[in-house]
Write a structure and sequence with these properties.
alpha/beta; globular; single chain; about 400 residues
């Protein structure tokens, strides 16, 4: 009997120990899941803040572009064209940053149209200072005839630009980087060829996977560039591949686009941001509130050129003091201010003017829907996300 009791006791003890282990494991899993959730929240907060910080300089560039164009200075035409083009590119990339999961899952809405890849390369990549670091020589070998593809031109530029950046990153200063176009009856091939560190077969097998970086290289980025290129090429119905004869023998990256069936048709011409004609005067008393001094001053100058009387403030308290002296016709208010939120400023202005018609325009780098809802609930008439062009501001101010 005693032996039976001891056996059952040992068996029970074993079961208790077994279940204790399971409970500890489950507790560890729950703790790990909580940590992952917190990390995910922090990631989303980081992305939102980063996008916000990037939008501020973009806003200053946008306003400066509109200001220069409004002066009608002919000799600055080329410079403003470059600024406008790059502004469009940066804005597109910032919008993508707001939803990283959409990029990594390939959920990107391409703005495709009939595009001559040969002309795009000649127009955008012959200006070597924009795509190489000054320590390399870029040689472009284009085609003699057009190469029509059905593609998103901004994304194609992104693909080629990323390949050129990688080529310079992994090549010694003073070496050449070649961009070579070839075509046949069904596809056009673009090769970026460097004289750099080269790739092993293992590198070639893994290099398009997320977060993979070239071993032993400094400043090699986040390891997402080639992954995004592959996803973008797949969305375009094309492909990308890497080639190398080994370490120290350089690399070649080839992207292939299928030729468009409508080859030879005239492509739709895009409308460049910031090139609209400025017609008529606004003649409004406008209060501008922004803690970014450069953006504030350039916007002030631009509005004055449009016939507005402008008062400005870099914080909420100064803005309310100005509004209490005389109610403005309209106010452009940055939501992220140092002393109070733009929402609080808008709400206070509504109280100060006591029913007078004041047009309140929220301008911010935060694009989330909840930020928009909070701003509209605070009394704003319209909500704009940086960077904001002149035409959008005019529409916002006039309703």
């Amino acid at each position: 009997v005693s032996q039976i009791i001891l056996a059952h006791r040992d068996e029970a003890s074993g079961e208790i120990a077994y279940f204790s282990t399971i409970i500890r494991d489950l507790t560890d899993i729950v703790s790990m899941m909580d940590s992952l959730k917190q990390a995910d929240v922090r990631k989303d907060e980081f992305i939102a803040m980063l996008a916000h910080e990037l939008r501020n300089p973009l806003q200053a560039i946008q306003v400066a572009l509109d200001l220069v164009e409004s002066t009608g200075t002919d000799h600055l035409e080329r410079a403003t064209g470059i600024i406008g083009h790059q502004l469009g590119q940066l804005r597109r990339l910032v919008d993508d940053l707001m939803d990283v999961s959409r990029i990594t899952r390939g959920k990107i809405a391409l703005k495709r149209r009939l595009t001559d890849l040969n002309a795009l390369v000649k127009e955008q990549f012959l200006d070597t200072d924009r795509f190489v670091d000054g320590e390399h020589t870029l040689l472009v070998e284009a085609l003699e005839a057009p190469a029509w593809i059905n593609a998103d031109p901004a994304r194609v530029e992104q693909i080629i630009g990323n390949l050129l950046t990688n080529a310079c990153r992994y090549s010694d200063a003073g070496t050449e980087v070649r961009l070579v176009l070839t075509a046949d009856d069904s596809e056009v091939r673009l090769n970026v060829i460097d004289q750099g560190v080269g790739l092993s077969q293992t590198d070639i097998d893994e290099i398009f996977e997320p977060f993979v970086q070239k071993a032993g290289m400094q400043h090699s980025g986040l390891g997402l560039g080639l992954t995004l290129i592959r996803k973008l090429m797949l969305l375009h119905g094309g492909s990308v591949a890497a080639f190398s004869d080994g370490h120290g023998k350089g690399s070649r990256f080839e992207v292939r686009f299928p030729l468009a069936a409508e080859a030879g048709a005239t492509p739709e011409q895009p409308v460049e941001a910031g090139t609209e004609e400025v017609a008529g005067a606004l003649k409004l008393d406008v209060l501008v509130v922004d803690d970014n001094v450069q953006a504030l001053e350039t916007l002030k100058s631009l509005l004055e050129l449009r016939g507005c009387s402008v008062r400005s403030a870099t914080c909420g308290a100064d803005a309310l003091a100005l509004a209490s002296e005389a109610a403005p016709d309209a106010a452009i208010i940055d939501i992220g201010l140092p002393d109070m939120s733009g929402n609080e400023v808008a709400n206070a202005i509504r109280s100060l003017v006591d029913g007078s018609p004041v047009r309140l325009v929220a301008v911010t780098g935060f694009a989330q829907s909840e930020v928009r809802h909070e701003a509209m609930a605070a009394g704003f008439d319209t909500f704009l996300v940086k960077p904001v062009g002149l035409k959008a501001l005019e529409r916002a101010l006039t309703g």
